[in-house]
Amino acid sequence: MVAIDDPVIIDSVVRRIVSISRNIDKHSCFNIDGWTVRLSLDGYYRIYKTIDGRTESLYLGKSLDFKKARRKIARKEKELNIFF
Questions:
Q1: With a threshold of 0.85, does the pTM exceed it?
Q2: Would you tell me which of 12, 35, 45, 78 could form a disulfide with 49, CB atoms 3.0–4.6 Å apart?
Q3: How far separated are the first and last CA of the chain, in Å rounded?
């Protein structure tokens, strides 16, 4: 019989909860100017948007810089002749 107040069980439960919350935070996504920002499993940020049935993507790098992302988005939208 295992007691609920056993330190080994408490430690393993806490480690599991921390691990799950880190995975949720690490792989969450959000938008910048209508493009979805995603931190991939390899640790690099990329942004995605579906335009006319095709998924366009841009590489941002290891760190997320909003100014850099907006510059790349503007350049890509100009290249594709789309304006939102």
A1: no
A2: 35
A3: 63
What CA–CA distance (Å, rounded) separates 68 from 71? 5
Residue 78 corresponds to which tokens in the numbers above?
A: 């100009």
Instruction: Please tell me whether residue 45 adopts helix, strand or coil conformation.
Output: strand
**Is residue 5's pLDDT more than 80?**
no
Q: How many residues does the chain have?
A: 84
Look at the alpha carbons of 61, 67, 73, 76 in this order and tell me if their dihedral is positive or negative: negative
Determine how many CB atoms are found less than 10 A away from the CB of residue 37: 19
Residue with tokens 């907006």: 70
Structural domain spans, the chain: 29-84
